[in-house]
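Researcher: Please predict.
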Amino acid sequence: MNSSVLACRLADILSIAALVILAPQCSIAQTPDQLHAMFESDQYFALRDATVNTAVPLFYRGAVQTIANRRKAAEKLLGNVIKAAPHSSDAYEAHGLLGNLYFRNGLYRESYRELQAESAEKPDAADVKNALPLIKALSEYPDQTIVKRRYSRLSIQGGYLPVSINGLDARYIFDTGAAISVISDLEAKRVGLTPQRVETKLNEASGNDVTGLRVAVAKDLILGHLHLRNVAFIVLPDTREPFSDVSQEKRGILGIPVFLAMQTLRWQPKGSFEFGFSPAPLHLSASNLLFHDNSTVVQVFSQSRPLEFTLDTGAIDTDLNPVFAATFPDLLKQSGIPEVHSITGVGGTNSYDSVLLPSVTFEVGGSAVTLKPAHVYTKYGLTSWAAGNLGNDLLHQAQTITLDFHAMTLRLQ
């Protein structure tokens, strides 16, 4: 279980389909071995369904609360797991789950504490060793806090939102695929940030490792009627994608900690962007969103089969991973054409073996959307567990997209 790898990528129609997506799945009693297999193989929606209204061990109940971003419940359940057997494998995984929950909410001091506990148990774990320098550096700043949050309605232009950083106006893109916000060198200097170098590497979309990282924290970030303090940024050179082709005041990316502070957000691709409206009630068994480490994950359907996709509003295109190829081998054999397809991230561009399909239709958030054409990577994937990375080519087939991080739902209308 790779519980501490930090991924940073640039990077409702009322219908029968909606009823299929939203209908709670029956809870079936599972043995501890079956639950363990689900957890280890990253079958998080299946794990959720196996724990709803079912008596299962505390660890798995706590794990489901972390992937649903329910902080208090997760702390209580996993805290009891750690207290009962502090040096057990469950306690080790509990620290990782809590560490990721804190990280994506901008609580880096708490995240570092959990990572230290992991490191004390397994000092040679590669993912923990790589994450420690970054989270240690971030933990030296105060945690992100919400000063004010009220309903806001803004204009969105080309995916960019008007934002104020330390009192200076800018327009930054919003990216649910970014575990942390990102800014360029020159833009960081313009808004008064002081970067600190970190000796670690970051995984990104193209498969390259990004090294020579720096971090900086903005004292104030204001977006509409949302006022945040101590918002962390990764600082990258202006020559890297996606900064090299845009004006300086657009060289910033707002990541998941900012969206979780909004709690609810809704936008029209060529119109308005709203946030801070009342959330829907949480019905966990009917939700179609969760978190895997620091990635936002949405459950989609293809040919009535459930699939897990990472949700990436910073990606222009949707790509399909080897998991999709393994799930639908006959489709690739009957309709696919072998090709080599390129993928670009902040680390550069790489090409990988893939199969070109004429089209694939998915049910996402209560709506049918079609990927045409569809590129299916057969060896390389953005993750080892997700069937694809859901980008704007599918999202923008809807007139309105709604994300509710309380109800844990994505809706397309």
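Model: The first strand starts at residue 145 and ends at 149.
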